[in-house]
Amino acid sequence: MTTAVVCDSCVAAVRRPALQADELVRPLLPALVPWLVNRRWFAHERGCLQGLEPVSSTVLTGDPADRDAPVLLHLLLTARHSGSGAPVRRYQLLVGVRRSLPAELASAVIGTATGGEWDGRYLYEATQDPELMSRLLVRTAAGPVGELRLSLTEGLVNPGRLVPHALSVEQSNTSVVYGDRLMFKLLRSPEPGPHPEVETLRGLTEVGSPRTSRLVGWLSTAGNGGEATVLGVLTEFLPAEGNGWELAVEQAADCLVGTCRAVPAIGGFTTEARALGEAVAELHTALTSAFGRARMEPADVLDQAGGMERRLKAAVRLVPDLEAYAGRITTLYDDYAKVALRGGGDHGQRIHGDLHLGQVLRGGDGWKIIDFEGEPARPAAERGLPQPALRDVAGMLRSFDYAAQQALAEVLCREESGAAPAEGEPSAVRLRQSRRAYAWAVRNRRAFAAGYAAAGGMDPHCHPVALRAFEADKAVYEAVYEAQHRPDWLPIPLAAIQRLVSGR
Asked: For residues 265 and 254, is the Cβ–Cβ distance under 8 A?
């Protein structure tokens, strides 16, 4: 996980009157604030943390007769930063409270309460505690608990018999699996109003999509006196051999060192890539069945192109390296608008919105697509709007490029450490492997596009102008992310942008 750089002012904010909290939460803040600002899902805006205010708090206690029973505290907090124009963000925390902490929860510790009714007790990440996560589902399934309400789309198997465990994968939310039957995704930065993943999965469940998990329910605030906020999404659990990212990087690395045998060394993964293209086309067909299609009028096309330009301008301010390409990227966007308008506009539909190899699982019955939140940086209200299906295609094509470069980095690291010595001069070996990585990405991008077209989707290669514009938009998004979180990876989207603006 990327560790955030925390300024002293953010941590010291717990001692300032400007940081507000009610009597229940105030004693927890000295431990919660330094822990919170180091979470991957905490957004570090310009300026320092100035305010942390409770929106709601719900206490789920255990056996009243057992004074040592752990307590589950559900919190919704808003964070305010001093930077001009910094948005007010809402965060969801599940905090466990115990007198003593078992050894298996040592890695989940947050700190200790200072004052209040839990003075001196341990605070810890409750999603790591099976007892508390079981309590959350059992209690809310029986009826509303404080501000918490669990809405179900179907009968729920007895949740008390499903042993929960949190997944350890890196992500911007937290997922807990219940007995390999249910998956509960806790939204760490929930927004009031309808949630795109709930809406999308509900529609796909109704039309019987074979490429996605069924929606079982969702946890939300009751919405008393205001708009309800979706806090978590409950779906069927999908067993898998691995996600697309892990499988692709592993196979690409094998090909770079010449150990793959099923296909030529510069090929690899193409059968899987083609099948993945077919799965995405089937997903888009199911989304059309559930939500229909909408013709994009000229105003819609111009608004879309304008949005890409606005995102580019904002990105240039954050990533100065983009400035050298800004004019040519804008030309790609303008070309897309001209072609779309000349053709009378395109059709938009509900799409995945943030599709890449990490959002697909390989199971015994083929590829499954998960995580329908869309790009987290965009407001939830925008993510469900009709968009060209090529946006999803562009996102997956960019992901093949990333997988190849990640495989290359891993191979070079092993060779530099002496774990896997390569034959030949180091410079010649690196050049050969770099070319293989590029060829791997090209072959699998082509295979994915071919599978997508064969399964009834449009042929991406028949829309080169639109595809190039959407890939550039995605690469700009990637450049901002890498500059903020993984600067060493910034050359990957920059190299893609250079190829795109050069017409390659």
From this structure: no
Cα(466)–Cα(338) distance, integer angstroms: 10
CA-wise closest residue to 386 among 425, 426, 348, 336 = 348
List pLDDT tens digits, range 302-335.
999 999 999 999 999 999 999 999 999 999 999 9
Query: Of the candidates 76, 80, 55, which has an alpha carbon nearest to the alpha carbon of residue 186?
Result: 76
Tokens of 452: 């997508």
Residue 414's alpha-carbon distances to 276, 409, 432, 439, 487, in angstroms, are 29, 9, 16, 21, 21
The sign of the dihedral angle between the CA atoms of 136, 141, 145, 147 is: positive
Residues forming a β-bridge with 60: 72
The topology under which CATH files domain 159-236 is: Phosphorylase Kinase; domain 1 (3.30.200)
Give this prediction's pTM. 0.88
User: Helix (H, G, I), strand (E, B), or coil: what is residue 214?
Assistant: coil
Q: What is the DSSP letter of 320?
A: G
Closest of 269, 207, 283, 192 to residue 443, by C-alpha: 269
Distance CA 219, CA 137 (A): 9
Report residue 182: phi and psi, to 5°: -130, 150
Q: CA of 36: how far to CAs of 46, 112, 137, 353, 374, in Å? A: 17, 14, 24, 27, 24
Of the CA atoms within 13 Å of residue 90, those in its CB half-sphere come to 14
Q: How many residues does the chain have?
A: 504
**240-296+346-455 classified as CATH 3.20.20.140:** no
pLDDT of 200-219, one tens digit each?
999 999 999 999 999 999 99
Check: CB of residue 496 under 8 Å from CB of residue 335.
no
Give residue limits of the domains in the chain.
8-58+71-122, 159-236, 240-296+346-455, 298-344+463-504
